[in-house]
Amino acid sequence: MNIPTVLIIDDEPDLLDLADLTLARMGLNVDRAATVGVALDRLAAKQYDLCLTDMRLPDGDGLEIVRHISVNAPLTPVAVITAFGSADNAVAALKAGAFDYLSKPVSLEQLRTLVRTALKVPHHEAHGPRKTRLIGDSPPMQQIRAKVEKLARSQAPVFVTGESGTGKEVAARLIHELGPRSARPFLAVNCGAIPENLMESEFFGYRKGAFTGAEADRDGFFQAANGGTLFLDEVLDLPTSMQVKLLRAIQERSVRRVGGTAEEPVDVRIISASHQDMSRAVEAGRFRHDLYYRLNVIDLRMPALRERREDVEPMVEFIIERLGGFAGSRHPSLSPAALDALRQYSFPGNVRELENILERALALSDADLIEAGDLNLNPERQSPESGAGAAAGEDMPLQDYLDQMEREKIQSALDQTRGNKTAAARLLGVTFRSLRYRVERLGIE
Hints:
Helicase, Ruva Protein, domain 3, globular, alpha/beta
């Protein structure tokens, strides 16, 4: 079988190493280059299945590579890595022929998604039952699994609550897969990531000629999920105008495309989620009272990882086995001290943060035993009972100090905008996508 080969171009050794190891675990071959000159030589000597390049390089910029590939290897997809907040560079790259872009700091999950999209590489997780991903035998997780099984037998709308990274989408998928709709689509939608002016056409579809660029009929999320489950993540980020239309679609079980005259019946089960408190959003006037009752028929609260510390060890074993299984990699273990450090950690980013911590440790450590120091845990995120308080700024490593300052700045903007990420991004002078990456990386709730 032909193994796809990816060319990564960046002058940062750490990013090259991380991207190299991540793609290698996906079963891909990787070539590296640190300059435009070396990259052009490699492109002249070999045909690549994907090229990933930084925008800023010592002897030029990534646009030169994008243009070169567009002319000389138009079938090779190329994506660019842009600096934080450099929306103009990303737009320029897309106009030059790039099919997508990533913003720094690079999210490994976003990187894998981009690569799978470009190469049609299958998910490694697809070979096993998804229900194994609700890991842990703590009382909270036993209750969650029992409730999920009950909810799967029902068709009532479910509202999943919990902090960021607690597995809200995992629970929603499991409800779908254990229920009678399992053979039909499960469609997950991030409500906070859709521009307001595109929401109606994205949710309900449109007719040909409905607006400039509508060259053919197109289905929306409701039509695509017909017969299955529609998962509305961060549903509290929907603007009021869209809340009215969503309420009608749920009540009438039908939608009308943009530019259409007739309503089309749809059969979807709605599961929604948010890390925010829906009742407070209703009290504050940010969310419709009638839609609240339509969505919050049954609630499911996902516990934070710090509330089930006994599940940390089985979660670690599961994640390491999954990560190590990519491309037949080794299966290192954690020392008792490393496991104890994780148990004492507060995990503001929950399971998602644990995955990132372990993936980074596996990528940067060559030893078969991972020690506590390899985890690079932030001292200020230790639990109070561990006795490790937040260090003073002058005693912190530079990156930890910068992360703390950035976290405080973003949290302040989110507080000022009452959790509205789009408004917070404008206040900070960055793009929504960049803010989303920062919020995820820093574990901001």
